[in-house]
Recover the amino acids of this structure.
């Protein structure tokens, strides 16, 4: 299994809603990432988990709350989002968090629309 | 900070012709460079990487890239383009953090259109 699975594929939410994005991998990878990608823009790093611990937070607003319950799962909890948060949210994983040659495996993303 | 630049927003090429997608880098220390491709409504897929060694790196789907230290470039190439190569291509570089983490930083992307 060489896949990173993200659910849901599409999500529409209001600014007062609470929702969660889920990401799962069964490749034994010990680093997991959340990236945000606006249309026609490159992915921007949000969070990195290394061995289930949060190791990088790119000054992301607190309305985004990541969680790594175990080495295979990564969640992104969303609360009180703004319309400008509408984007494609990509999850990725790599075998190790620190190897310079490590390649990232990406999921297909969750397309989020905030109304 | 490590960064990469992709000077072209769009590259158009006829099917069967060679293609080049350009990337230049700016790093302190050794460069660790990657190319990824993104098809519509999909995540990114790894194509190839340069860590050390031969300047010509071969990757997936017939793509290759040439590392040029003097020009600080890492251009993506393919001898004969296919219509199915049409996609968004991202150059990326390892960002070496003091914490030991090495996340990828992406260029802005180049849209490749291969015309039949």
């Amino acid at each position: 299994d060489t896949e990173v699975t993200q659910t849901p594929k599409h999500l529409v939410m209001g600014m007062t809603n609470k929702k969660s994005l889920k990401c799962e991998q069964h490749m034994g990878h010990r680093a997991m990432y959340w990236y945000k990608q606006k249309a026609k823009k490159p992915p921007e790093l949000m969070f990195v988990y290394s061995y289930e611990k949060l190791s990088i937070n790119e000054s992301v607003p607190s309305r985004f709350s990541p969680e790594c319950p175990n080495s295979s799962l990564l969640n992104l909890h969303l609360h009180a989002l703004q319309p400008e948060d509408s984007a494609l949210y990509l999850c990725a994983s790599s075998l190790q968090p620190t190897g310079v040659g490590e390649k990232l495996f990406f999921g297909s993303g969750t397309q989020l629309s905030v109304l | 900070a490590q960064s990469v630049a992709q000077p072209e927003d769009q590259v158009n090429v006829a099917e069967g012709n060679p293609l080049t997608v350009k990337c230049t880098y700016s790093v302190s220390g050794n460069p660790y460079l990657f190319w990824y491709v993104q098809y519509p409504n999909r995540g990114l897929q790894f194509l190839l990487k340069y860590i050390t060694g031969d300047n010509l790196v071969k990757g997936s789907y017939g793509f290759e890239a040439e590392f040029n230290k003097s020009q600080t470039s890492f251009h993506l190439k393919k001898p004969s383009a296919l219509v199915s190569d049409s996609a968004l291509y991202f150059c990326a570089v390892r960002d070496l953090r003091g914490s030991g983490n090495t996340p990828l930083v992406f260029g802005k992307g180049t849209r490749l259109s291969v015309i039949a």
Remarks:
- Chain A has no helices and eleven strands.
- Chain A touches chain B at residues 4, 6, 31, 33, 40-43, 45, 48, 50, 55-56, 90, 92, 97-109, 111 (CB under 8 Å).
- Chain A has a mean pLDDT of 93.
